[in-house]
Structure prediction request, 167 residues.
Amino acid sequence: MAKKPKKQQQSGGTPATVALTAAGVDFTVHAYDHDPSHPSYGEEAAEAMGVSPERVFKTLVADVDGSLVVGVVPVAGSLDLKALAAAVGGKRAAMADPALAERTTGYVRGGISPLGQRKKLPTVIDDSAESHATICVSAGRRGLEVELAPGVLAKLTEAVLAPIGRG
Prediction:
């Protein structure tokens, strides 16, 4: 019996959507055709879904004092590494090696979700998320986003909300 749910999870969605379903929260999945030649995964998602780039958030993995941390910021801006470090009580931050980020989260670059990661990482969400009823984040693969309330995302990821985005 224990093997059957595992099979359903594998065919029933990404680890992110499986985690959302298991949590019993409201969310909407948005799928679009990913264009590998597009210069920005996040901007492509906003354009494809017809959603303001301020409501579409990208998931970035950084190294803060030797530990991986997730920063979730609007695709319309960038991640303030100093602010991210400060939000988790660290001193220095740099973008993580992409291969390490992929191995640790279980997702590919451009499809890293803050939800359902292989190893749950400390997460900081830019506080601008609170100004929106819903935001969109990666659902765990390129061309797939989930839309949910920012408070729900913060609760499920045990995130801190802080001003980590630069416009």
In short: The mean pLDDT is 91. Residues 76 and 87 are 21 Å apart (CA to CA). The two ends are 50 Å apart (CA to CA).
